[in-house]
Amino acid sequence: MRLRTLGLIVTLALGILAAPLAARAQQAGRVPRIGFLTTGASPVPWEAFRQGLRDLGYVEGQNIVIERRSAAGKVERLPDLAVDLVGLKVDVIVAPDPPAAGAAKNATKTIPVVVRTSDDPVAMGLVASLARPGGNITGLTSLWGELSGKRLELLKEVVPRISRVAVLWNPAHPGAILALRETEVAARSLGLQLQSLEVRGPNPDFEGAFGAAARERAGALITLRNPLIVRHRTRIVNLAAKSRLPAMYDEREFVEAGGLTSYGANLSDLNRRAAVYVDKILKGAKPADLPVEQPTKFELVINRKTAKALGLTIPQSILIRADEVIQ
Known about the structure:
The protein is an alpha/beta fold.
């Protein structure tokens, strides 16, 4: 009788121990599903994020599944796409631009969301603070708005004789007002006049904006980042060249497309870093406890060929500080 009772106790104990082991084994065999939600203004976030996953040992179709949803530049489509990902019960949603981040935030309060936003995530209402996000959202910020003044300073160094700078921006974009204010503060300290060139979607009048810059005799151009401008970067770069306007951008892709210069965080690096957040969350970390990461390295890129076409000689003080000079 005692042996039978002892055997029953052992059996029950083994069953209790085996249950979580079986659950963990089942969980270990499950392939995580990641939702990737983007406005679609640039292919860079997707490519860099996938590379970041590969660097961590994730192979799409083998040990991870990625549900990619792109609004193809149509911001109004993002809410429905975000709801679609929530319906698929993905484990994490990655949103690499501000409109996508906002749509993901509105679609779910429970699924972890990793953002890579150019705007201030606290001001956007995405997180409670950078150190303690506090909800289901965390990720990275590129300090885009805060660097607008620094870009104007660098533009003044590249083109010392300018007195009037045209600002190409979209007032409807979250964070645009903050970036414009930063630019205005820098303009006052540098003794520069700013000319506002507003462009709005879905059919922005870039030709009209550049025509206005020519009429007011702007000596240079600076762009305030938003998906609309990113999506039309080649068109903008070509119009700047046609108007013979030296231009400062916030990401290297503009310079690679023929723009004069850019200054900002390396967005490819930040999007690769987003994969690190996904990895931590899949391993059990809570977004509320993962601080929002800010960039520590910024890159200055110069296109010397474009400078030559504009009749500009880039000062040596700028060239020696450049992270890359495209010849």
